[in-house]
């Protein structure tokens, strides 16, 4: 009678498994845990820094430790000033589109000339900066406003004919002799001409913008 041999099933053992030990397994798990812990800490720090830097995007302030959300602020502002702000944005965009349509470009040099002119009117650069701070403006915002005004002025001058004659200057001088008492026409001629030009420019700008607005398609969902 043949005796059955007990055959033990053997499995190939990899070099890694052969060399592995409870101690090495523990160290591997511990190392993985350390990496995860460091990652959590780093993400936490980044989240805190971002929340601190951009917290005003969600919360704009607190009242007795109760938060005032950006949503609340925007809702109230929209109710009070939404329509007027929308109108301002529409007007600004329409003018920008018309200026681009007419191929008008304002250079940095033109803006600089205007800034220098305004600075001179204020007497000094310090006075000009103080005026900007008083109105809550930065120099960059002031330059942007100047750029828009120059663009609008060029637009009016390109699409409308403005001519101030010597007769118009003399008539203005004669009609306002009390203002120019003791002065001759030649002394104030250029000043009067510039004043009349600005008045005509303003009138033409109103006419131009009225036409642009009437032909525009504007929709509001407020």
TrEMBL record:
Stretches the record annotates as Disordered: 1-24
Alphabetized UniProt keyword annotations: Isomerase, Membrane, Rotamase, Signal, Transmembrane, Transmembrane helix
Catalyzed reactions: [protein]-peptidylproline (omega=180) = [protein]-peptidylproline (omega=0)
Enzyme Commission number(s) of this protein: 5.2.1.8
GO MF assignments: peptidyl-prolyl cis-trans isomerase activity
Compositionally biased intervals (Polar residues): 9-24
The keyword Calcium is assigned to this record: no
UniProt key word Transcription regulation: no
TM region positions: 33-51
InterPro entries (UniProt xref): PrsA_foldase, Trigger_fact/SurA_dom_sf
Protein name in the entry: peptidylprolyl isomerase
Source organism per UniProt: Candidatus Collierbacteria bacterium RIFOXYD1_FULL_40_9
């Amino acid at each position: 009678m043949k005796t059955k041999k007990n055959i033990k099933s053997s499995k190939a053992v990899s070099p890694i498994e052969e060399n592995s030990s409870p101690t090495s397994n523990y160290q591997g798990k511990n190392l993985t845990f350390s990496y995860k812990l460091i990652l959590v800490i780093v993400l936490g720090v980044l989240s805190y820094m971002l929340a601190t830097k951009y917290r005003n995007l969600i919360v704009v302030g607190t009242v007795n430790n109760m938060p005032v959300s950006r949503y609340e602020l925007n809702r109230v502002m929209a109710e009070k000033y939404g329509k007027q702000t929308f109108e301002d944005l529409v007007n600004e965009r329409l003018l920008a589109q018309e200026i681009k349509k007419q191929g008008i470009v304002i250079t940095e040099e033109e803006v600089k000339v205007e800034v220098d002119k305004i600075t001179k009117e204020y007497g000094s650069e310090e006075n000009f900066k103080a005026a900007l701070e008083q109105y809550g403006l930065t120099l960059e915002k002031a330059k942007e406003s100047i750029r828009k005004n120059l663009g609008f002025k060029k637009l009016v001058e390109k699409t409308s004919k403005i001519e101030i004659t010597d007769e118009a200057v003399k008539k203005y001088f004669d009609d306002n002799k009390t203002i120019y008492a003791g002065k001759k026409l030649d002394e104030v001629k250029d000043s009067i001409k510039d004043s009349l030009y600005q008045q005509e420019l303003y009138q033409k700008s109103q006419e131009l913008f009225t036409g642009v607005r009437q032909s525009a398609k504007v929709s509001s969902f407020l």
